[in-house]
Design a protein that fits this description.
This protein is of the alpha+beta class. It is built from five helices and five strands, in the order E-E-H-H-H-E-E-H-H-E. The model has no long low-confidence stretch (mean pLDDT about 85).
Length: about 110
């Protein structure tokens, strides 16, 4: 008899500015500037759930932040931005090692 299970590897989908600065070893002002760029210029690319604001709570979607940091220079250049691939959270999640996979194990006791 075979046994199947799902292995999940994931991280925190949303982080605070301070945590992002710490994780990427960048200054909080750099995070603040990138956040402003994401909210002001890239809303159409990333949608409503890129940044969550509620009172004093501010959370940034890590997949959005990683994608923006990867393609930032091209996104800011009006000629190069047309060559930036469409945002794919699934692709970014795979690249950072977040995944779900089904594992099938054969019963070796027989």
């Amino acid at each position: 008899m075979a046994v199947a299970y799902v292995e999940s590897i994931c991280g925190y989908p949303y982080m605070q500015k301070e945590r992002i600065a710490q994780e990427f070893d960048i200054s909080p002002s750099t995070v603040r500037n990138r956040l402003h760029e994401i909210e002001e210029k890239e809303h159409d690319r990333y949608g409503d759930y890129a940044v969550i604001r509620d009172g004093k709570i501010l959370l940034i979607n890590m997949l959005v932040f990683l994608d923006y940091m990867t393609y930032r220079r091209r996104l800011l250049d009006k000629n190069a931005r047309k060559y930036v691939p469409e945002f794919s959270p699934e692709k970014v999640a795979r690249m950072v090692g977040w995944s779900n996979r089904t594992i099938l194990e054969e019963d070796m006791s027989q």
